[in-house]
Structure to design on (536 residues):
């Protein structure tokens, strides 16, 4: 064993003090220290060869007791002999090199948004506070999202030193642009991808394909018509879609869902042929008809004129409702223009095609009044066949009772126009006309005694019965000249006259008083001649 006592004794007191006393440390100096305890707010360090240091526990949260760490001296010893140190200052110093390298190499670094300030956000990056302007934040001004504490990837845009402090400018927008550019480079047109629905809009879906935003227009959702996207999708849905246009420069990505399946119109002509009957579903009713879907993407129109053979205006609501399953006849199909014309009335025979087998002119028919006009009524004889009766054919005399919709009527068919699908009818023709009756009662040469119904300047009218008047012209009222008829005759006066003309076709009766008077004179002359063989 070596004896060092002699050597020890030879050392001066000052030399021994310098050898064994703690070494002095300077403010700003970076030293190594061992963590000897961790409390809630502060932790204590053994600064080798010096003294105890004290540091905020939050600065060394990732370390454990016994770990050796590097810290910076920030303050001299306090009253208890503890030296204030900072781990954050070391980290910041070490980070400056990394930040400058990231700036030069345009590297992406991670940071945390710590607070909102005027014009942007403060982001903590490698223990440094950096400023991220609103324009570079990728955070909408109207966003209600709480971004404080949000971890974000940023690019270092600039580093400046002012008053021994680093002023750092960062951008999140540049990172998003880089990520989008990389993502765009992996995509290609016609590629099938999985997308996530970000929002459902009235005119389409806003979606995300990994890190790229895209859009699916409502017309690209389905080969069929889509009215409300909210009934089909919601935010967060994952769906398959095909890329149809891709423009990395404009950052435009458009996709389609319907392109994943074949256009049903491509095979429509093979599945559906004209004049065949198929079943479909009513999707919408409009004022000019109804749309009927045969399958997804194949929809046709039943025009209002193709619901019934009857030409009168119909209420579609009485025939069908949206959602109804109906049988329809295919009238026309154009795959190129994607047009399909359908009919319902064509499921039955056009009654006008066989009208000759059912009705003939002169036949008596019955029906129900379905429409009234100031000039007549329309009577439904059977489904698809209406007859029209003019007001002049209601009755021979003025009709006291008004005809109304729903009334049952009997009438005679006066004319049939098959080409124009029209039937003319008459009610009064079921009975003899007053003129026919009068013609049976009187004839030319008949002598009648009737009352005067009215007097005109040119003659007098007498009541012939059955609602008819006969006329005695002023030249036939007397064998003598009569200047003023009202001086010789009055209304209600009975006169005897001879029928000199009657025509049921022309509805005309002419009479003469003069003829009776002249005949009477002739008879008197004949009697005198017979009796006396002479005349006056």
């Amino acid at each position: 064993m070596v004896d060092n006592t002699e050597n020890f004794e030879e050392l001066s007191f000052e030399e021994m003090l310098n050898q064994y006393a703690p070494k002095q440390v300077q403010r700003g100096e970076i030293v190594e220290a061992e963590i000897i305890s961790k409390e809630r707010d502060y932790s204590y360090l053994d600064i080798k060869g010096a003294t105890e240091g004290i540091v905020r526990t939050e600065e060394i949260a990732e370390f454990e007791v016994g770990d050796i760490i590097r810290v910076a001296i920030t303050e001299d010893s306090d009253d208890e002999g503890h030296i204030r140190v900072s781990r954050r200052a070391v980290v910041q110093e070490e980070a400056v090199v990394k930040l400058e390298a990231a700036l030069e190499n345009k590297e992406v670094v991670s940071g945390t948004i710590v607070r909102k300030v005027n014009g942007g956000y403060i982001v903590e990056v490698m223990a440094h506070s950096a400023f991220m302007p609103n324009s570079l934040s990728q955070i909408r001004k109207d966003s209600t999202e709480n971004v404080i504490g949000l971890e974000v990837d940023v690019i270092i845009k600039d580093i400046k030193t002012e008053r021994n402090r680093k002023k750092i400018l960062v951008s999140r927008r540049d990172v998003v642009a880089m990520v989008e550019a990389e993502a765009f480079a992996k995509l290609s047109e016609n590629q099938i991808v999985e997308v996530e629905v970000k929002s459902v809009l009235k005119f389409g879906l806003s979606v995300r394909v990994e890190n790229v935003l895209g859009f699916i227009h409502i017309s690209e959702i389905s080969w069929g018509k889509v009215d409300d996207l909210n009934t089909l999708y919601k935010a967060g849905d994952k769906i398959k879609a095909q890329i149809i246009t891709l423009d990395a420069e404009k950052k435009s990505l458009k996709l389609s869902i319907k392109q994943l399946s074949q256009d049903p119109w491509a095979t429509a002509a093979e599945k559906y042929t004209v004049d065949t009957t198929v079943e479909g579903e009513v999707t919408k009713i409009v004022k000019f008809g109804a749309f009927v879907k045969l399958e997804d993407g194949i929809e046709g129109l039943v025009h209002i004129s193709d619901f019934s053979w009857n030409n009168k205006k119909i209420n579609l609501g009485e025939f069908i409702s949206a959602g109804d399953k109906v049988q329809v006849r295919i009238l026309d199909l154009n795959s190129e223009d994607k047009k399909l014309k359908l009919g319902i009335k064509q499921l039955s025979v056009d009654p006008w095609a066989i009208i000759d087998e059912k009705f003939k002119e002169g036949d008596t028919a019955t029906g129900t009044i379905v429409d009234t006009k100031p000039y007549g009524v329309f009577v439904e004889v059977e489904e698809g066949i209406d007859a029209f009766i003019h007001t002049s054919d209601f009755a021979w005399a003025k009709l006291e009772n008004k005809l109304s919709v729903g009334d049952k009527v009997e009438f005679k068919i006066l004319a049939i126009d098959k080409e124009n699908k029209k039937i003319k009818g008459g009610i009064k023709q079921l009975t003899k006309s007053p003129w026919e009756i009068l013609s049976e009662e009187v004839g030319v040469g008949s002598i009648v005694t009737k009352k005067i119904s009215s007097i005109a300047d040119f003659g007098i009218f007498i009541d012939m019965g059955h609602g008819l008047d006969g006329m005695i012209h002023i030249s036939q009222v007397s064998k003598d000249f009569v200047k003023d008829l009202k001086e010789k005759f009055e209304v209600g006066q009975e006169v005897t006259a001879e029928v000199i003309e009657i025509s049921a076709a022309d509805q005309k009766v002419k009479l003469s008083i003069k003829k009776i008077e002249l005949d009477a004179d002739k008879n008197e002359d004949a009697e005198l001649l017979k009796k006396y063989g002479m005349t006056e």
Notes: Confidence is low (pLDDT under 50) at residues 4-9, 16-22.
